Amino acid sequence: MPDNALPSATRTVAIVLAGGSGQRIGLATPKQLLKIAGKTILEHTLHIFEQAPRVDEVIVMMNPGFVSDAEAIVRKAGLAKVSRVLPGGTSRNATTQLALDALSHLPSESTNVLFHDAVRPMLSQRIIDDCVTALGTHRAVDVAIPSSDTIIEVDDDVITDVPTRSRLRRGQTPQAFRLATIKDAYVKAWDDPDFEATDDCSVVLRYSPDVPIHVVAGEEQNMKVTQPVDIFIADKLFQLGTAATPEYTEHDYTEGLQGRTMVVFGGSYGIGAGIADLAEKHGARVFRYSRSATRTNVANPEDVAAALEQAHSATGRIDHVVNTAGVLKISRLDRTDPAEIEEAVRVNYLAPVNIARAAFPYLAQTGGQLLLYTSSSYTRGRAEYSLYSSTKAATVNLTQALADEWSEDGVRINCINPERTQTPMRSKAFGEEPAGSLLSADKVAHTSVDVLLSDLTGHVIDVRREDPAGPAAGARSREQEREGAQ
């Protein structure tokens, strides 16, 4: 059957390959069970497929010694699409065959299968969608990105060839197939006594050479955690921002907020007021606290504790705690008054610490979430922003650390990273700015509520006026870079 006349697939199954042991890089625990941003790498990966609209079922092929660990992760995370956790084989090829055996009850011509490395936890929904779309006209699909490095062939440490770089790609996953195609290739492969392959597309290429393998564009972020340094890089990539946040409808807001209790520190104006207004509109009981309206000083642990106790006494529960309070002082550190230094540290960092400590027991009762706020200036300390940048970086690290600490208690914590936003704090620092150059506080408020209603934890969520991967990416001016966010 020609590639452009394939029958419509009725089911798409994702096979998550999690058979690694970690021993090659000296780890006692498989890489897929290491934690990044409050969750194991495996859980991050499974959540991606759980949220993929065009994936119907997920099967995990796990290292045989850790099947129960993976089952516990699936059960605790409520991953409804994961139908089975099966032990993998002693090789990549054996594991693929075991997965194909598990799919033997499905119609081969109308089933799509996506094989994905568990240790690629930053796969985008765009890649998944492109793979499934490509399987409408192709029987085999790979994901790849251009090579930025020159690739050389060597023999005994001597270069034997330098292939043309423009024709080279770096392969990623998922690798996607019509089930009939990959099954047929493996039937032929096992008849070869010398059969050995490191991936599934090479099996199709070698044993079903008449099947063209279409290539879908991958992404640099879709990296594979292989070496110890990759764990560090992946952790930083999670820290630098997550764009794939859920977007809820007005009906979803009402269902998720009706009867819930929300406490907003810094709720009198700007982003905090926008969140409080939106939550109240959809049926939440909202308690707003600020220095101007309620004389609540977030840097004072007693004030924070009293505010939370008041909200809990009135409603019997606290589901969401939000802290948008902050101060922005632009000056050289050596010219900053000691009292201003102390205020910046207390409000921008000690306040989130105090709020987290005080809010935890209430949120543990409801399985709730704490939401903090950072700034794009946290990624790099800038002149005259030393206090602001460093305290915002500390807030990001606090978020990730607490996500890990609180994971067993069912309490979530996330951090919003808005680009330059129209707020009273910003206006006070910078005065009037060109219309349309700033993000609206309402947009940040809507994204904040989306995150509060999600099951995300340990994430830094970017909020931007434009898609950072779009045509306008990288167009920020020197002044914008200097000024940072908010």
TrEMBL record:
Matches recorded under Pfam families: adh_short, IspD
Gene field: ispD
Record protein name field: 2-C-methyl-D-erythritol 4-phosphate cytidylyltransferase
Keywords (A to Z) from UniProt: Isoprene biosynthesis, Nucleotidyltransferase, Transferase
Basic and acidic residues compositional bias, start-end: 476-486
Function: Catalyzes the formation of 4-diphosphocytidyl-2-C-methyl-D-erythritol from CTP and 2-C-methyl-D-erythritol 4-phosphate (MEP).
Molecular-function annotations in GO: nucleotidyltransferase activity
SUPFAM superfamilies: NAD(P)-binding Rossmann-fold domains, Nucleotide-diphospho-sugar transferases
Sites marked Transition state stabilizer: R24, K31
Organism: Nocardiopsis alba
Reactions catalysed: 2-C-methyl-D-erythritol 4-phosphate + CTP + H(+) = 4-CDP-2-C-methyl-D-erythritol + diphosphate
Cell cycle as UniProt keyword: no
EC number per UniProt: 2.7.7.60
Stretches for region Disordered: 463-486
Pathway: Isoprenoid biosynthesis; isopentenyl diphosphate biosynthesis via DXP pathway; isopentenyl diphosphate from 1-deoxy-D-xylulose 5-phosphate: step 2/6
